[in-house]
């Protein structure tokens, strides 16, 4: 999409932190709390992960990253995918998702996996449109009602 730029950044970068905080606030509004999944910033540093920020017309509007997952580390677990409400339905989320996938693929990952929930229908629709399919639940929320996991081959 024109006007969209994706930049690699550190998880602790102030712009990234602002967007992650906004993502947690969005989740809290939907579910009553943010994502309590344990996350270490170093997990999002190459070569074991990556973190990206999406800019729309120069303004940071979204973020997302991946970290190595699974016993062989060949799976990229997508985390902290978020697009500000005003930038949704403009292709930013999909551009960000594709960039996260490209980063994971370049680092040798062969599959992606992610957790989401039924109170995020726009995210689920985007993932399904991008070829993601339901996979067995995993991770912190695997036993929570309304949790859903998705994945796809890279």
Could you walk me through the main structural features you see in this protein, from its secondary elements to its overall organization?
- The chain has 154 residues and is an alpha+beta fold.
- The protein has a domain at 4-110: Gcn5-related N-acetyltransferase (GNAT) (Aminopeptidase).
- The chain is built from three helices and seven strands.
- The protein has helices spanning 14-31, 92-106, 121-129; strands at 4-8, 49-56, 59-69, 75-83, 111-117, 133-135, 147-153.
Helices and strands in order:
Blueprint: E1 4-8, H1 14-31, E2 49-56, E3 59-69, E4 75-83, H2 92-106, E5 111-117, H3 121-129, E6 133-135, E7 147-153
Parallel strand pairs: 4-5
Antiparallel strand pairs: 1-2, 2-3, 3-4, 5-7, 6-7
Count of helical regions: 3
Q: Give the low-confidence spans.
A: none
State the oligomer.
single chain
Order of helices and strands: EHEEEHEHEE
Report mean pLDDT, rounded to a whole number: 96
Question: In CATH, what is the class of the domain at 4-110?
Answer: Alpha Beta
Would you identify the CATH architecture of the domain at 4-110? 3-Layer(aba) Sandwich
Can you list the strand order of the major beta sheet? 1-2-3-4-5-7-6
Shape: globular
Largest sheet: 7 strands, mixed
**Fold-level CATH name of the domain at 4-110:** Aminopeptidase
- The CATH homologous superfamily name of the domain at 4-110 equals Gcn5-related N-acetyltransferase (GNAT)
Query: Helicity, in percent?
Result: 25-40%
């Amino acid at each position: 999409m024109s006007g969209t730029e994706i930049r690699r950044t550190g998880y602790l970068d102030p712009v990234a932190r602002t967007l992650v905080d906004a993502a947690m606030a969005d989740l809290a509004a939907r579910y009553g709390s943010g994502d309590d999944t344990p996350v270490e910033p170093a997990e999002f540093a190459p070569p074991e992960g990556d973190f990206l920020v999406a800019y729309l017309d120069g303004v940071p509007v979204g973020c997302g990253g991946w970290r190595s997952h699974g016993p062989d580390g060949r799976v990229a677990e997508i985390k902290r995918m978020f697009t500000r409400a005003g930038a949704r339905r403009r292709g930013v989320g999909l551009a960000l998702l594709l960039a996260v996938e490209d980063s994971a693929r370049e680092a040798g990952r062969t599959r992606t996996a992610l957790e989401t929930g039924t109170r995020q229908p726009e995210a689920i629709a985007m993932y399904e449109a991008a070829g993601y399919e339901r996979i067995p639940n995993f991770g912190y929320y695997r036993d929570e009602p309304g949790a859903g996991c998705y994945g796809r081959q890279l």
